[in-house]
Amino acid sequence: MFNKLTLTLLVSALFATPTFAASDNHEIEEIVEMLEANPEVVDGLHESLAMYIKQQQQFNQLLSSSKTYLNDPRHTYMGAENGEITLYNVTDFSCPFCKKLDAELAKLVADYPQVKVVNLYVPLKEGSSSVNSAAYALNVWNNQRDKFEQVNQLLIAKPGTHNAASLMKIAQKTGTTKQLNVSDSVEKQLENNYAMFTGLGLRGTPALIVGEQVIPGYVPYQQLEQVLKEQL
Question: Domains of the chain, with CATH numbers?
Fold first, then answer.
């Protein structure tokens, strides 16, 4: 007998991907047959499906209303400045899987020069530290753009979580110590990033926003390339 949790998982499995199409008519017919044979689960399934539709509408509305913010030039990016396809990378310099994904994204924009990857920094692992890697990177991007690539690579190269000492070491090496102080505008930008992070229902980094879907967690290159080809 299905319980409510099972129904919720069933709905998620059926409708989580954008590839649901007419070719799935056979599966739909089987579902209808199962529901007819088990009418006691209909109410729970109806409730779960209605909740899913409401959440999807809210998700799409948030993405639509945030287009201007997502394309703000104050966000760092890699690849084409005016890309044919834009991926939004929700990331954290202190997250090991984010660093691993960054290498895959760098390869992707090298192989597909029409792609742009915009970074939305959410420094979850560094908490409320007065100095954090995300604010430092954004300061460098906005004030010493010629130093950003070197700083970015050093931030990614360090294993584990960043702290004041690791950031100072990178800043001294790259001549960017002035950018360690968190400006009000960058602090507000990071607050907005976190608001979007929670609004999209994300629970961790990394995550990719591609079109109207979110792909949570690390994604290997082959899967990234397949997602991109579908978008193209």
Answer: 4-65 (no CATH), 69-231 (3.40.30.10)
